[in-house]
Amino acid sequence: MTDIERLMNPRSMAVIGVTDKEGAFGQRSGANALKSHIRDRVYFVHPRRESCMGKKCYKDLKELPEIVDCILICTPAATVNPILREAGELGVKGAVVYASGFSEDHTSEGIAMEKEMEDIARTYDMKVVGPNCLGIINNVNKIMMWGLGAWIDLDTRPTGIGIIAQSGFIAANIVQLEQFNISYAVSTGNGNCFTLDECLEYLVDSDDVKVCALYLEGIKDASTFCRALEKAAKKRKPVIILKSGVSEKGAKSAASHTGNLAGSAGTYQAVFKKYGAVMVDSLEELLCTAQMYSVLNGRLPKVNGFAGINFSGGENTICADLCEKYHVKLPDLEEKTLKEMRNYIPPFAAAKNPLDGTTSLFTDREKVYNVIKAMGEDPEIGGVLVGMNVAGPRGVPQKEITSMEAMIQISDEENAPALFAVPSYEGDRDKVWREKLESHGIPVLSSAEIAYKVLGKLGEFVEFQWEKSTLAISAPDKAPTGTKCAMSEWDSKLEIQKLGIPIPAQGIAAIREDVPEVVGKMKFPVVMKVNSPDILHKTDAGGVRLNVRNSEEALEAFDSILANCRRYMPDARLDGILIQEMAPSGLEMIIGVTNDPQFGPVLLAGLGGIFVEIFKDVALCPCPVNTYEALGMLRQLKAYKMLEGYRGSRPCDLKALTDIMVKVSQYALEHKNTIAEMDLNPVFVYGEGKGAIAIDALIVAYGDR
Amino acid sequence: MTDIERLMNPRSMAVIGVTDKEGAFGQRSGANALKSHIRDRVYFVHPRRESCMGKKCYKDLKELPEIVDCILICTPAATVNPILREAGELGVKGAVVYASGFSEDHTSEGIAMEKEMEDIARTYDMKVVGPNCLGIINNVNKIMMWGLGAWIDLDTRPTGIGIIAQSGFIAANIVQLEQFNISYAVSTGNGNCFTLDECLEYLVDSDDVKVCALYLEGIKDASTFCRALEKAAKKRKPVIILKSGVSEKGAKSAASHTGNLAGSAGTYQAVFKKYGAVMVDSLEELLCTAQMYSVLNGRLPKVNGFAGINFSGGENTICADLCEKYHVKLPDLEEKTLKEMRNYIPPFAAAKNPLDGTTSLFTDREKVYNVIKAMGEDPEIGGVLVGMNVAGPRGVPQKEITSMEAMIQISDEENAPALFAVPSYEGDRDKVWREKLESHGIPVLSSAEIAYKVLGKLGEFVEFQWEKSTLAISAPDKAPTGTKCAMSEWDSKLEIQKLGIPIPAQGIAAIREDVPEVVGKMKFPVVMKVNSPDILHKTDAGGVRLNVRNSEEALEAFDSILANCRRYMPDARLDGILIQEMAPSGLEMIIGVTNDPQFGPVLLAGLGGIFVEIFKDVALCPCPVNTYEALGMLRQLKAYKMLEGYRGSRPCDLKALTDIMVKVSQYALEHKNTIAEMDLNPVFVYGEGKGAIAIDALIVAYGDR
């Protein structure tokens, strides 16, 4: 049994600081522990009590008849570390610490106490959940290590979702919503000892968890986190993530909540995308998505295509609109399917996707069955969406019962399509019918707008091909040391040329007399730029001359650039003039790298100039990036149309461009501990087969230069 | 009493074709009619029955003791027109026709029957709702003219929202949801006799309607529709519109549903925006928005700024993220407010907006009261958002009751801010508490994502200043006749020059010998272009020469352009060469006009080139457009940053640009019956005070040329 297993699935446990004072951690945690299936091996510990809740209290851990797997510490912050140390000495391997008052308080005392806790955990190889948490509910093995009144009936609640929340109340709220299938719920609190990352890996590994749902403010260890995502991707186990703190004010709120740095929202999103994890925006979307995957239980749509059927023309129109808005694919059905559908719908109804079922189908289960079946058998359809509220002020209406019976019949057949109930309105669904649908593998989604958003992302999940992705990041081994230094343009370009990235022929004229020799090896026209570590805005300094057409012009340009720059900044070091062939203009792209402190180098691609800066039309992917991923990045750009060939212009050389992207990402990977940023700007991309070339480059690295 | 009043609020009515056959229109409509407060003046008509539901049946309308205000026709399609005609002869002014089988069937017979119905209605000045509808519920006067089992208790249901739905089932579903305050619900069906537009005007005029909610597939009469929106804007009465059929498949679905043309989604959106109407995407959003305004009952936030308070750090972070996503303004609170808040929150909590209330406020009503009060008194705050689900599997939790009591206390005070309950999850809200909050003017919104979307749009509504808008469209008086003809560039530019829009000096050289004289009046460099009605792609034909620097080059260019064009298209009519001064380049904008068949000319503005075509970054506004609206259009553009001055570049001459926009819109208005399209592309915009100039122009009009 691993240490983590002893924490998550203990065979025995002790509640330390148990009490019967209503509302205290000791009371709630004790009462919950007694609901566990291991209740015979649950022990209460209190230094001054004989018994509590009718159960014997031991004075301390040493008195217990066995060394328990896990302890639940219900005492205040100041008392926690001594208890942990004692437990560690005894060989206890798991602990839950509820108390707050540690690093999240941002006091030096709190931070020091939490550091000490980490030390203790390391020293004794203990897995410690918390502090500032609500603990763990294990509904697979029916064990409660939970510090709040938990309205969950372990005997009846179905399993499915593994929840990790960096917010106790969010975990608690989710658990108490009866309609969700919970396998584990973990409130990680500050999460510096037992991290969210480790916890995720445990849940991904567990066969009892069909889908992981995370409320995430920030991670601790990128490598562990991404290893878990990698395993999940390979198992096709969905990981649903509500990453909060993505806004400016949200990041501040997260910081004062659990002390997590929110990090760059864009980087997180790029990491999730790389591993096919599903990013959501709200709790409702998190829950709807998680429950959907739990109910589908692996029976995903075979293709990313949906057919819709509604029993109101208006709702059918809204369905079509929302599907377009949320990128839910509604393929045109093939003629065979339409023909079959026409056998069951009235002559005035139009056989279409989505289908207005009309009132004539309201009460005819046979017809509804046949229509849905025909839709589901269309080769382009992986799932059928049925509009219904599974509710009504006077009970579930007959038209919905007709449809639900038909859906259940289909769902029980072999090779059935995935089926979904899509409500128009919020409101409690009918419990009995909801459970009936779900037990036959048919999820009841949230009201339409969230539902279609969730379905659009389900389509992406269906299309995600992990085999083609690198499923890797380049997390740095250590924080960079030294200061940031920018290489000169000349050196930066030489560096990328070594990678096999085309650059224009270039040379340096240190003195005027070098000019003829340098230009002698080049084709005119050339470009001349001052080479100086001090002059950053060369154009402003009059340090750039384009379209130099012959040697005479080159000599004149040499003099004039130097004169301009001396005037502009008299003290600047001028290391000669960089001369390069002027490349024919192509589509201007930017390829760049930033280095995220947690996830390491992240590749960026976008169309040059204001497209990046004003329209923020950029794609990110953590390095390394392979050709498939590079192409995926380009496809994410709104400007992709321009690369594809736009208004009769030829398609661009995507092969050459992605080749550069892959090489840059490889370089960044190899320099992950030192690179600060990298910019190829612009890269000119030419027509198909004509290549691409980096016109300018800048590499900034940490070092001691 | 007007005719429309006799329809919407009849003093007497007759149910024609009453029956006791369960499920038939005659049965439902009859039973509903008897629930009306005018039940003493409700008459049943059936040619062969003595009585029905214990009530006497008359043989026909003529037998009734009075000429009723309104008749409800429950008989099949083929029988409707004769009944209507008979009623018309008698002087009946209102009718509801439930039957389908008219124009929505797309059969020539159905279309003809509906045309006849329109004739009858016109001849006898009758207001006829339907066909293919469910009728009207008037909850103000407690009258049911409704063809479906309606689970609405007229005696208890509060009034507030006026609903118009071009889908019977949508109307019916909304009405049966008990939590909505309904004044009127109208299912307009095909709506060719009594249109949605007329109905909207009636509801806007009615003081018993606080907010109008529309499910709209398409309108019939733009002038009436916009007149209603204008009245609503001036009264500050919110009109909430779910315009469906905005997607390609949605438009098709709408067409086969009620035969309405969906029209251009962009144009509808622009029209709504002009009048400050609120556009929503889903039924849930429609209902949440409508009920919110109904509950607020005119007590809108005084400024567009919100403060948020949540009782879970996680939910507080999500609140901040979603507010940013949906443009809900969360201003930083002023120091005075923060200081006041700090008196009530624990020392470790951060006084911020949004605020994590922490558990210490859970049960302390006094503290919650004081914190919310302080937030609401901040000059930048118009509304306070309180995170709560108003529900729970074990009843409403104590922490929510604490907050709700505090909110109610504040809401009852003078000058209270608007208060909102924002749930995280879907689910039925507690009825008692929901009603308690709402009766004190506090709306309970939908789950967070919809809620913040609704609040973002509420902010826009608060900021909308109808006094500064034209509140007008330029609907054409008649459909255009003749064929589309494009004016030449020369003529188009002369036309816009007459409006006072700057254009470059231009001249035509019909023959080579004209060139010196034409260029003699100009400053070099000039641009030369072939002038031909046949050559549309001048550049492809070699018909354009830029940067012509002197007379000699101009003569050479003349020859070469003509030669190129003869080669390109030997039969083309060549009407000489257009010569114009080459303007210094500026920021390239496109100003255009399209002519919507219903709403008339619509002005378009966008940054030139691929910004419009690839990024679809355009703003639309129906003509006429004044300076305030023109500036509003520019502010909608993502590219607005470039007009404002970007990375140190000077701000553009917005005055000159909006001046051009206003003039173009005025021209379009004056030619609303004939104009097809208009394009000023590009318009060069220079720095502040330096003006703007239309470099090229094209006017296309319908006519007999």
What does this protein look like?
2 copies of one chain form a homodimer. The two termini of chain A are 51 Å apart. Chain A is built from 23 helices and 29 strands. In chain A, β17, α14 (398-411) and β18 form a beta-alpha-beta unit. Chain A has 705 residues and is of the alpha/beta class. Chains A and B meet through α5, α8, α10, α11 and α16 of A and α5, α8, α10, α11 and α16 of B.
Q: Provide the spatial order of strands within the biggest beta sheet of chain A.
A: 3-4-2-1-5-6-7
Distance between the termini of chain A: 51 Å
Total DSSP E strands of chain A:
29
| Gross morphology of chain A | flat
Taken as a percent bin, the fraction of beta residues of chain A is 15-25%
Q: Per CATH, what is the topology of the largest domain in chain A?
A: Rossmann fold
CATH uppermost class of the largest domain in chain A: Alpha Beta
Treating each run of at least 4 consecutive H or I residues as one helix, how many helices of chain A? Answer: 23
Name given to the CATH homologous superfamily of the largest domain in chain A: Succinyl-CoA synthetase domains
Question: Regarding quaternary structure, how should these chains be classified?
Answer: homodimer
Given helix and strand content, the structural type of chain A is alpha/beta
Major β-sheet of chain A, in short?
Answer: 7 strands, mixed
Rg over C-alpha atoms of chain A, rounded to the nearest angstrom: 31 Å
Whole-number total of structural domains of chain A: 5
Helical amount of chain A = 25-40%
Largest interface: A-B, 82 and 82 residues
- The low-pLDDT segments of chain A are none
The CATH architecture term of the largest domain in chain A is: 3-Layer(aba) Sandwich
Q: Average pLDDT of chain A, to the nearest integer?
A: 93
GO molecular function (chains A, B): ATP binding; ligase activity; metal ion binding
Keywords (chains A, B): ATP-binding, Ligase, Nucleotide-binding
Protein name (chains A, B): Acyl-CoA synthetase (NDP forming)
Domain ATP-grasp (chains A, B): 493-529
